[in-house]
Each structure stands twice: as structure tokens, then as C-alpha cells.
Amino acid sequence: MDGEVETEKVVSVKRAIRFKETQKFTQWWLWLIILAPIILVFFNFLGIILYVFSGYTPDDSGNVSVSWVSGRLSIVQFICVLVYVATILFLALSKLKVSVSDKDIKIHHLVFFSKVIDLNEVVEKQIVNYDFVGYGIRKTKKYGTVYNVKGKEGVAITQTNGKKYLFGSQKTEEFLKSLLK
């Protein structure tokens, strides 16, 4: 073995994916609420431009003062704008990914959350039509931990240890069938 380098072979085992779904926040009314301030600012900006170039001058000096140009942005305003932009980016980039293999269920929500549930520990599974429980990751008494991005239909499971999970899905029938194999 002088001068020989031993290499170790790594054998990767691929998971057989039975079901895969990626959901995003695509509800038109949610984006309308979030983007409404931008629309209002745009129309306000358009009104100011039309006002400035209309030729109207309030006094003989010929100067029209536009306070938003000459004013400064306060720290509070800056923080509000920053939070607003961060919210828009978060919702635009957020994805809820659920995949079911022959061994487990994997859930990913952006880069913040990842969970794996062993299929051998699942004792109950059913399709549920639920009332609105909120978006994101929620804890409820009735459904346990809820992973929801849109809609009011999902697949509920219960583990052997009594923990409950509800996964919002746009493909509930396909999702449930992947758990039954």
C-alpha cells in the first residue's frame, strides 16, 4: 500500500418521488392589497407632475414648491419602506414545497423551514376542506401544525405519537394517493 491512495465509494440512494407540489402566493386580492400603496404613490406622483407642468404658479415668483422633493426621509419612514419592500420580496420568493417519497414526506418553506415526516409513523390520512386558517405555518387545536399557502383544501395526517399536520394542497387527491402506496 505504499503510495496508494484508497478511495471510498459513496453510494447515493435516490428517493422514488411519488408526489411533488410547489405552491406560491398567487392570489390576486392579496397582491392587490400589498401593491395598493405603490399604485396610490404612482397616481400621487403623476398628479404632482401634471400640476408642476400645467403652468400654474401660486404667486408671482414663478416657483412651485414640491415638498416631497425638497423634504428628507425620516428614519421611521425609511424603516416602514424597508419593511414594506421586505414583505413584497418575502411573498414573491416564498414557496411551499411538499414532496412524498416511498419513505417520507418532506416540507420546505423558502429557506426558513424544512421538515421530514417518516411515512411509517403516519396512522391517519384524509382530505380535509377547512375554513381559512391563515397563510404560512400555523398551530391550531383542530389540525395541529398547518402548512398553507392558498386555498381551503388539504391533506391531514396524524402520527403514531399523536402529532397532527395539515398540508394545504391544490392536488389533494394525488397527494392522498401518494401516501397510500
What does the model show?
The structure is a single chain. The protein has 181 residues and is of the alpha+beta class. The chain contains 4 helices and 9 strands. The radius of gyration is 26 Å and the shape is elongated. A hairpin with a 3-residue loop joins strand 3 (104-109) and strand 4 (113-118).
Name some characteristics of this structure.
31% helix, 181 residues, alpha+beta
What gap, in angstroms, lies between the N and C termini?
A: 49 Å
- Amount of beta strand: 25-35%
The assembly state of the depicted protein chains is single chain
Tell me roughly what share of residues is in helical segments.
25-40%
Question: What topology does this entry show?
Answer:
Blueprint: E1 17-24, H1 28-52, H2 67-70, H3 75-93, E2 95-101, E3 104-109, E4 113-118, E5 122-129, E6 136-140, E7 144-148, E8 153-159, E9 164-168, H4 172-180
Parallel strand pairs: 7-9
Antiparallel strand pairs: 1-2, 2-3, 3-4, 5-8, 6-7, 8-9
Short description:
The chain is of the alpha+beta class. Helices cover 31% and strands 31% of the residues.
